[in-house]
Amino acid sequence: MSEVASPGVEDAIAWPPAWPRVLEGEFGAPLSGDYRAAPEDFRVEEVLDFAPEGQGEHLWLYIEKRDLTTAMVVRELARLCEASPRVVGYSGMKDRVAVTRQWLSVQLPGREAPEGLAARLAERGIRVLDQARHSRKLKRGVHRTNRFRLRITGAAVADPALEARWQRLCDTGVANYVGPQRFGADGRNLQRARTVLARGWRKRDDREGMLLSAARSFLFNELLAVRVRDQSWATPLPGEVVMLDGSASQFGVAPEDAAQLAELSERARRLDLHPAGILWGVGESRAAGEAGAHEAALAGRYPGLCDGLERAGVRLARRALRLRLGEPRVTRGEGELWLAFSLPRGAFATAVLRELISHPSLGAPSSDRSL
Q1: Among 109, 118, 156, 218, which one is least packed by beta carbons within 10 Å?
Q2: Same domain, 247 and 100
Q3: Average pLDDT of each block of 10 consecutive residues along the chain (371 residues)?
Q4: Which residues are annotated as catalytic?
Q5: Which strands sit side by side in the sheet containing 317-320, from one edge to the other?
């Protein structure tokens, strides 16, 4: 439980946080289940919306890895190519306990790849499925979607309401919580972020920006939790900033324009657009009206995080409060359920799973420890 803070002092943060599920009011709490008993139970395929050109100084490799992080693959590829990890590019970080496919690039100006590179990578559990040359390094966040295929087992599979839960997510969308992996074991990334932001963020303390991301993600999840509780997470409020589905395009809802609000609410019902919550930082894309009041309340509850992010110069951004499941499919087997769906980059499959099963890794509160 969060401790009550004295005036001017930021609330203590209970971990794990009790961020509510959308479906719990209708179906009750989900039954326990497992979703990653083995890497083969959690499969991810990264999808780009372009292909390498076929020439250039960067060698692009489409790889499949098992029980390895993307960072591990980056280091191994750099070592085998006798290159710095800084010249290895990738679009997204993929889970370790999983079988995942993604593109990576390595800069090899004026030289070929080392002989037997694919075979040597295979010895480390990294299969090269395709390769091509390209003129540029692969940049972070350029992939379009991730395709997932996940196996669920345990008591939840026998729940007669499980398919109904799944269908509701397909019809109305998923609360776009940032996954627990962003915050580290027992919320340690967030604890470190609070410490660093309190004394003043420095690049040398957080070279990859992981701690800034943990702080912003926590604030976003807190905002989303409030909106889930008051059942406004999927519907624009007066003064809302909304985001088109499958796009970063966004625009504001006039606080006093009832006709516009009604039109956009209907489009939100069709999953054409979604309310967009704040990723805290400095900038002008502030919500107004009722939506803005929800965002301003974050600064009142967590002044240390909000002020620290602004002093660090992080630019304000937005993230949709809701996800639409792409290409959803479900297959039932003996004692198991396979789910297949796609999500836009930056979205977490754990946000889907937490609505369907109860599992310690999905953020269900298990203690009253505070950071």
Answers
A1: 109
A2: no
A3: 39 82 94 94 94 94 96 96 95 92 96 94 96 94 92 94 96 96 91 95 90 97 97 95 91 89 95 96 86 94 96 96 96 95 95 95 52 54
A4: 95
A5: 250-252, 241-244, 273-279, 317-320
